Amino acid sequence: MKDATYLQLVGARILSEANDLKRDSHALAADLSLDPATIDDVISGSATPETTDEVIRRMGEVYPIDETDLRLLPDDCDDGIKIMRAKESRATSRIFRRSDRNGNLEPYYEYRDTAFSRLSPFRPEWIRELRVVSDCDPANPDVAFNHGHFLHQYTMYVGPVNHYWEIDGRRYAAEMHTGDSSYHTPFRPHTFTSRSATERALILAVTFGGNVRRAQRELYALGARAEHYLLDHAGPSAGTKSLIRQYLHDAAITLEQLDAELRRAGATLTARGAVGGDRPLSARDVEHLAMALGVSVRDLQVAVFDDSEVIVEHTSPDDEYPYPAATDHRCLIRPMIRTAKMPAMRGFTAHITTPDTNLAGGFTTSLHSWIYNYGHHATRLCWSDGSGERQTVIEPDDSVYVQPFVTHAFSRAEGEPADLCVVRVAGHVSGDTQRELSHFPSISRVVREDRRWY
Ligand SMILES: [Fe+2]
User: Fold this and answer.
1) Which fold has domain 81-211?
2) How far does the centroid of ligand 1 lie from the alpha carbon of residue 54, in Å?
3) I want to staple 89 with a disulfide (CB 3.0 to 4.6 A). Which of 23, 112, 274, 430 is the partner?
4) CA of residue 431 to ligand 1 center, whole Å
5) Using CA atoms, how far apart are residues 192 and 157, in angstroms rounded to an integer?
6) Which residues pair with 357 in a beta bridge?
7) What is the pLDDT of residues 225-268, one digit of tens each?
């Protein structure tokens, strides 16, 4: 699997699609007006890129499928990681201007790209605040808000940065310091300024698309009808009741039929009480409904959060702990903001103290990681995707993208300990996808189809 070339993987993906379409290579060749030997070459990965491309193009024309699904991502990582050096980041520098109090367009932000890959769900930026203010007042006319954006934003602060945000027309502000963090839900207007004309004031902003971003193409196709997916949040059981109504429609179950199923499950709840009304559903009710609808209890649960749409975390030395264990002290971790709303979005700072380069005490995570050296000292990075061990030095302002399950360990390069900002988010494989995948009998044919379905 490890050594498969890009064309072999694309060939396997074409075979998987042909299986879904219930075509063998002869049927595929006939439908695409190609020679069966050509199809076999493409599936085995021995055809040219042009021929492979031609097969994908014809499949997209002949069958009602999404041909972009067959165009796999060429791996742009180096054994599972991708580094962007400080110099490369600096070369992407661009200045954004926004109006000041006099209506003049003056420099507001300097943006720089940092490490990301085709595979990574995030587009992290280094953003320096160029607008200097002398207060923390969101009504200050030098503060210019944006309109909010589609991506979630996880932000770490370095230096004296003011953070402003708007919820339902009301504006808020907070003074932030190095190591503080915040999380913004999509489409919430926000902005940042500096409180100092001399000190470095910047944010490390990890913007990323969650599951909704991944569903974007389908949502664009559905347009206004996508609104029917929104769950009711008006009461404690409102979300669950929306889901029950949806399951009834999806399976063409009538209220009378649900009543009969509920009685069979031993419930006292009525179907009308399950789909409407103000009465909250008890845990027992939800169990009965799950039984009656043939779903699991988890499928009917809708979490209610007290979090605001923008949340802020001020860092404190009291939160610090040694990692990976108190008895194996390689670095000091300080958690950044966590919200139950986004269980697959985690961040922390790491103060690297160990001289030990051993990978065994390093990080391994199911999430995609973005790491930025925001301090003044270099650190040694060792990593392995399972095929061997690699090393490099990560200098200040270098950044790194790490694929899931690539083990990576940091240690002191020379001199003082380094300070890293680490933000991790899920890609396509989390939550429901992970649960579904875990019921498959084997992973090998999921990641690379190798045979006809019969
Ligand atoms: Fe933003």
Assistant:
1) Jelly Rolls (2.60.120)
2) 40
3) 112
4) 26
5) 10
6) none
7) 999 999 998 877 999 999 999 999 999 999 999 999 999 999 99
